[in-house]
Amino acid sequence: MTFDTPLEDELLILTSNRKHSGHPKNEVWQHFHIIPADSTNGKKDLHSGAACKFCKQKWSNGKTSEMITHLALQCPKPPPPEAKELNL
Question: Which residue intervals define the domain BED-type in the entry (predicted)?
Answer without folding.
Answer: 23-82
